[in-house]
């Protein structure tokens, strides 16, 4: 599909600013794609409507794709410097016309991740950092082995959710798809990998 606009997006609970998201359209499909939000593609029969979204000029307005896909976040909004009306006109000019019947229910709403998993992950992360001496009432210190362990667990956790069906069943709510959080998982992998690389370089330098 040809790209018709570049901008930002809100995909579920993830917000990405311009110019990291692309909007593509043709007579057979519509797609919102970006490295941090993944790729969400729709056939005309998946989409109920294209709606103007937001009240703040330029930075807050966009087009919401009202769709019936159960494996995509219910909220998908594309934003660019174009007005919502012009964006919708570009999509229609590319030949894409929503054709989902009104009776089709929209996809699920809310965060796709189980809250219990988020709570456990936050507790474990903070416990490791606290045990390593990272507390607000102490002077800053060099990262220790528990900080390294926390980053390894973060990298392995994000990676396992992307590749393991067992991990996805444990982390995601029933009926939700890993594609909904693929962008944030990639971001966590990138950040954890970079921080581990920096810690490795510092450890080698300190050992010389």
Q: How would you characterize this protein structure?
A:
- The protein has 208 residues and is α+β, with helices and mostly antiparallel strands.
- It folds into 2 domains: 3-93, PH-domain like (Roll), CATH 2.30.29; 115-207, no CATH class.
- Helices cover 38% and strands 23% of the residues.
- Strands 4-3-2-1-7-6-5 form a 7-stranded antiparallel beta sheet.
- Strand 6 (62-67) and strand 7 (76-79) form a beta hairpin.
- Helix 3 (145-163) runs antiparallel to helix 5 (182-207).
- The longest helix is centred in the last third of the chain and has 26 residues, at 182-207.
- The model has no long low-confidence stretch (mean pLDDT 85).
Brief write-up:
The chain is an alpha+beta fold. It folds into two domains: 91 residues, PH-domain like (Roll), CATH 2.30.29; 93 residues, no CATH class.
């Amino acid at each position: 599909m040809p790209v018709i606009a570049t901008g930002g997006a809100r995909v579920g609970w993830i917000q990405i600013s311009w110019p990291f998201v692309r909007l593509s359209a043709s007579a057979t499909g519509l797609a919102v794609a970006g490295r941090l939000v993944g790729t969400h593609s729709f056939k005309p029969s998946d989409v109920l409507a294209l709606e103007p979204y937001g009240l703040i000029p330029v930075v807050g307005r966009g087009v919401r794709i009202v769709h019936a896909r159960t494996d995509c976040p219910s909220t998908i909004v594309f934003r660019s410097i174009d007005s919502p009306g012009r964006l919708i006109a570009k999509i229609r000019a590319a030949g894409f016309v929503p054709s989902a019947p009104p009776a089709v229910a929209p996809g699920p709403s809310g965060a796709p991740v189980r809250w219990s998993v988020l709570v456990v992950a936050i507790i474990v992360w903070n416990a490791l950092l606290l045990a390593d001496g990272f507390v607000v009432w102490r002077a800053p210190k060099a990262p220790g082995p528990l900080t390294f362990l926390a980053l390894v667990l973060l990298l392995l956790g994000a990676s396992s959710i992307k590749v393991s069906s067992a991990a996805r069943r444990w982390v995601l709510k029933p009926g939700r798809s890993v594609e909904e959080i693929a962008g944030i998982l990639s971001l966590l992998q990138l950040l954890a990998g970079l921080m581990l690389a920096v810690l490795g370089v510092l450890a080698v330098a300190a050992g010389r």
